[in-house]
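A favour, since you know our C-alpha cells better than I do. Just paste the record in under my message, thanks.
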Amino acid sequence: MKKRLNTKAMFIVSMVIFGTIGLFTRIISVSSGELALYRAVLASILIITYLAITRQRIDFKAIKKELPLLLVSGMAMGINWILLFQAYKYTTISVATLSYYFAPVIVTVVCPFLFREKLTAKQIICFLMSTVGLVLIIGIGNIGQGGSDLIGILFGLGAAVFYATVILLNKFIKNVTGIHRTLLQFFAAILILTPYVAFSGGVHLTELNGIGWVCLLTVGLVHTGITYCMYFSALKDLPGQEAAILSYIDPLTAVLVSTVILGESMTFQQILGGILILGFTLWNERS
C-alpha cells in the first residue's frame, strides 16, 4: 500500500513538473531548435549517469532489432519539441498546451487503421466533441486569419501530430522499454536536431544570462532527465487507466501557470473548448 502511494505521488509530481515547462522556456532566449537540442543532450547525460550508477545495462540485441523504429520515434520527438516551443512563443501557454493535448484524439482516430481496432460509438462522440473544443479554442472568426494566436495553435497542433506519431510508433516497439527506450529516442532526437540547429542559425549559448542558464539547466536536467526517470519508474507500477487519468494534471498545471503566474487570459470560449478536449479525451480513456 505504501509503495503504491509513493508510486502515485511520484507520478503526480512528474505531471506537475511537466506542466511548468512553458514557464521556463519563455525565459530561455534561444531558438526552439536549439532549446530542443540542449534539452535532449542534458537529459541524455543525466540518464546515462543514472544508468551507470544503478548498473542497468541496455540489451543491444533488442536495440538492433528495433533500431529503425527507435530512430524514427526519437526524431519525431525532437520535431515535436521544436513545434511545442514555437507554440509557446506565439500564443499563451494554456492555449498552446490545450492544442497540444489534441494528440490523444489523433491516436484514437488513427489506431483503427493501423491496428485494425474497431472505432466505437463512444470514441466517435469523443472525437467529434474534442474537435468542437478545438474549434472553440481557435475561434471560428480566426480561422483563415494569420493572427499570432492562430499561428501558435497551429504549431501546437503540429506538435500534437508528432507526439501522436511517437505514441503510435512506441506501440510497435516491444523489446526496449522504459528509460532505455527514452534514452535511445533522445539520441535519435540529437541526431536530427544537431544538423537542424547548424543550418538554421547555429549556437547562441553565449547570449544567455544567468537566469537563462538556470532555466535551460532546469528544462534539460529536471523537466526532462529527472522527471522522465520518475515518470517511467512510476508508470510501470500504475494501472493504465489510473495513469491516463493522472496525466491530465499536466495540462491543468500548465493552464494554472499561464493564468495565475503569467497573468495570461483565456476567453470563456477557449475555456469551454479546453474543457471539451480534456473532458472527452479523459472519458474516452476510461473503461
User: Anything to note?
Assistant: DSSP finds 13 helices and no strands in the chain. The mean pLDDT is 83. The CA atoms of residues 109 and 267 lie 28 Å apart. The two ends are 24 Å apart (CA to CA).
